[in-house]
Amino acid sequence: MKSRKISRGLRDLLPPELKVRRFMEEKAAALFASYAYEEVMTPTFEYLEVVEMGTGGNIREELFLFMDREGGILSLRPEMTTGIARLAATHLRDAVFPQRLYYLSNSFRYVQPHLAQYREFWQAGIELLGAEGVRADAEVITIAVKALQEMGLDNFKISLNQIAIFNSLLDDSGLNREEKDCIRSLVENKDLVELSRVLESLDIDDELKETIAILPVLHGGIEVLKRLPYVEKNQRALAAVQELREVYETLQLCGVIDHIVVDMGVLRGLDYYTGTVFEGYSPELGYGLLGGGRYDHLLGKFGFPCPATGFALGMDRLALLLKHPALQKAPRYLVGGKDFAAVIARAEELRKQGFAVEIDVEGKSRQELERKLEGRENCITGGLIYV
Amino acid sequence: MYDDYLTIALSKGTLLEPTLEVFKKLKLPGEGINDKSRSMVFTYDNERVKYIMCRPTDVPTYVEQGAADLGIVGKDVIVEQARDVFEMVDLQYGYCRFVVAVPEAIKNITLKDLNYKRAATKFPVIAENFFRSQGLQVEIIKLHGNIELAPLMGLADMIVDLVSTGRTLKENRLVELIKIMDSTTRLICNRVSYRTKHQQIQPLIENMQKLSTGGSA
């Protein structure tokens, strides 16, 4: 057997890539911890019925499915939030809320692989469980902004929306389930051409049509909320707009407003979101960097009703933007010599001082080692010590 | 790599001329562009606009990956490729329609009689989705051109193809059995560019919408 194949969409990570990854993980973990979040881990695969509590069964073709020997259907986790909701509903029933949890984990989706989209992907994320309201939303969004900043990114935007605006308008539209699903998917995919055609054919209030048609393209500062003519007629939508304003104002207090835009087209793909939602983008990459929002009903599906909000940051994508992160590395020495006991002693001494030491295990002469060092000055920054 | 130019992927071929006419009306630069020259990139520094010349089937790829912010391409290509891009404006020109066509000799056949028959097409995704949505099992034979030849030579019982005037069908003694969908030219947009270059893109979209719905920009 000489097969060197790996399954499509997977990859090996070599030291240079892994250094960047660990750098990101350390920054993320330190930031999350500074906001009093604590790390959790959930199993890499779960029962399909658990996974679909979160995904709603819409993305079954994206799941890696297999069976256990008792006939249960299992899925590699396609995201982390559902597993953490299950974890909280199982283990944290008696805990004091709000609970703040974070994770650094891999998830799996059977997607078309391309740059920045792999079938195994790594995320850093947080979940704030048991807190309602705009302050909790603002905390999570603030941490998202700071996470990107900590990792050295400054040119990025977080698009902010309140999903209940769109949902309330659609719920009260008098349309049937099929029509609603159709409009939802057209708005999510920003197929404006088909959307305007479908709206044209529907028998609903003209102002409502106009509002639904404008939602996917409404983008800008908080003032864009004035451009929703129909919202005044829908109490729930109006309340959601008011909440979005409050989140925006709170983010001003948090000092991150420079990175925030209101974007009514952000609906997020997963079924579980209920309130404030957001996504992060950099102009240097054609794909989103992070996404999250409020999901107040998910824990209830596991028998533990509890409001929640959170986000996940795609580390594979972010790594593409961090070409030269300020990686700290200890000076590295190469230690060699005839007397191996002396070599070991010297190496230990240097290691104790915090240096990285590579010892010559091949018993080479000074000249040979000097030759070996040529071209590796960037790596062996401390140089050669021959004892 | 990021720059503040707006990059637009243009479809070479029949769509180019009407596209440039629209651009002219929108006061977008366009001097010297043609798809005959060797240049594939046209840059206009004053206007901060860049055009790239692509095969129509490549336009959604450039836009999805963010190598271009916007693209001009037919709905037929968008549907066949199912790329993750925003579809912003129907530019109306470049009309054609997807049809199922059969040889004249069996023109009175009904759709359900096509179950378990063979269809030749350049658009396997559209063909497959259509037949499935009708509850039919049809064997799709993917060809790269001259689809009309397939039924003549007994390779397929029918074809799924793009038709604009219907002349080619007639010349090959094929008749349109059913229309699957209409297609016109669309403006598509990268998901992220739409957000990060919103101030450049949104006015352009609005002007195009006005223009294509009959008003003037």
Automatic annotation (TrEMBL), chain A:
GO annotation, biological process: histidyl-tRNA aminoacylation; L-histidine biosynthetic process
The entry's keywords: Amino-acid biosynthesis, Cytoplasm, Glycosyltransferase, Histidine biosynthesis, Transferase
UniProt keyword annotation of Protein biosynthesis present: no
Pathway assigned in UniProt: Amino-acid biosynthesis; L-histidine biosynthesis; L-histidine from 5-phospho-alpha-D-ribose 1-diphosphate: step 1/9
All copies of domain Aminoacyl-transfer RNA synthetases class-II family profile, residue ranges: 1-331
InterPro entries, per the entry: aa-tRNA-synth_II, aa-tRNA-synth_II/BPL/LPL, HisRS-like_core, HisRS/HisZ, HisZ
GO molecular function: catalytic activity, acting on a protein; glycosyltransferase activity; histidine-tRNA ligase activity
Residue positions binding L-histidine: E79, M80, T81, R109, Q123, E127, R268, Y272, Y273
Entry GO terms, CC: cytoplasm
Places the protein is found: Cytoplasm
Entry's transmembrane regions: none
CDD domains to which the protein is assigned, alphabetical: HisRS-like_core
Role of this protein: Required for the first step of histidine biosynthesis. May allow the feedback regulation of ATP phosphoribosyltransferase activity by histidine.
NCBIfam families reported for this sequence: hisZ_biosyn_reg
Family listed: Belongs to the class-II aminoacyl-tRNA synthetase family. HisZ subfamily.
Protein name: ATP phosphoribosyltransferase regulatory subunit
Organism: Syntrophomonas wolfei subsp. wolfei (strain DSM 2245B / Goettingen)
Record lineage: Bacteria, Bacillati, Bacillota, Clostridia, Eubacteriales
Encoding gene, per UniProt annotation: hisZ
